[in-house]
Amino acid sequence: MGIFIVRKINLKKILFFSLLGIVVLILEFGDISSLLQARVDRSTAMQVTKSVTAEPIIPATSPDFFTEYRLERDKIRSERCDLLRDSIKNAKNDDTRTHAQDTVLKIIMEKQKEAEMENLIRAKGFADALVFIRDNSVSAVVKATSLSREEVIQVAEVISRISGVKVEDISISGKP
Questions:
Q1: Is 19 helix (H, G, I), strand (E, B) or coil?
Q2: In what order do the strands lie in the sheet with 170-175?
Q3: Would strands 129-133 and 138-143 be described as parallel, antiparallel, or unpaired?
Q4: Where are the domains of the chain?
Q5: Per-residue pLDDT for the chain (176 aa), expressed as one digit of tens each?
Q6: Which of 2, 28, 41, 95 has a Cα at 20 to 30 A from 134?
């Protein structure tokens, strides 16, 4: 009796998944008749007669400091936002939910401002830049072997204008 029940359940599973497969095929190809009528036309098929040797894959230039750091920063932010979204879903009171929502919004706004400042710094003629907004300060790393006083002032003005942080609370350094 127990064996019969197991077979019955397996048969139900098989039927269910078979029907599910047919439904997916119908949705994918429109209707079942076009699926059944589809044939492979081999008359125009090409034949490879020349062997192809595999060329060694040379990776593109390895990501530089700026690209790697930007990727790492985005990964950390994404993980942080995921945790905050989970806490928003599972919040037991409105204060906790509101605080988590405010934090997510702050992260998004910081990301937007950092990207805007980085783009404007590049528009000033620098090859690349990274900007980090902290609570009351901003740090920037500009791709340059050295920075003149005028260049530092240019970058600081962009950062101050976008972030609202005073010039004396902005740190700027160069990295080749």
A1: helix
A2: 129-133, 138-143, 170-175
A3: antiparallel
A4: 65-175
A5: 444 444 444 555 554 555 444 444 444 444 444 434 444 444 444 444 344 444 444 444 556 889 999 999 999 999 999 999 998 898 889 898 899 999 999 999 999 999 999 999 999 999 999 999 988 899 999 999 999 999 999 999 999 999 999 999 999 999 98
A6: 95
Query: In degrees rounded to 5, what are phi and psi of residue 91?
Result: -65, 140
How far apart (Å, rounded) are the C-alpha atoms in residues 77 and 173?
23
Nearest one of 104, 129, 108, 126 to 118, comparing CA atoms: 129
* C-alpha 68: how far from chain center: 13
Does pTM surpass 0.70? no
Reported CATH class of domain 65-175: mainly alpha
